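ok so for the tutorial part 2 we go from a plain amino acid sequence to predicted structure tokens. step 1 is just haveing the sequence, like this:
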Amino acid sequence: MAARTRWLVVAALVAAIAVAFLFRRGCRVTPPDAPVAPRSFTVEHHAPVQSPDLEVGPVLVGGTTYRGYTDWACFLECREPEGCKAEVRLVVDYTADGAGGRVVIAGSLDAESGETMRLGRAERPPVAAVDRVDRVTLEVVRFIGPDVPTPFVVF
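step 2 — the prediction. this is what the tokens look like for a chain of 155 residues:
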């Protein structure tokens, strides 16, 4: 009977370890900023950016959709002979899954003529992959003088 009891205890112990392993493996917690799936998008906007106060080149709009938010990134070329140094608001009107949307990105630019500038932000709730960019408008909030350091803007 002692041998039989030992085998029952060993079998129960092995079964408990297997159940604990399977339970732990099935209950992994996904970090909140982990991508839902690797869902990045890039949309080139070939029309000129509507920018009455600052001369910039066409924009490249991209982003990555994570669980809970979309991380937007917009790249512009500075075409001002004196350089681009300003606090700005970039408004991107887009179409995603047949529905229209808009994201507003504020920030500071500090680039020489011909350099690429980046503006970005996180948007909640997340958007699906963007099909196309309908319009991009760049508004200058304030020009920054040549001797003034570019401010660090937190939104």
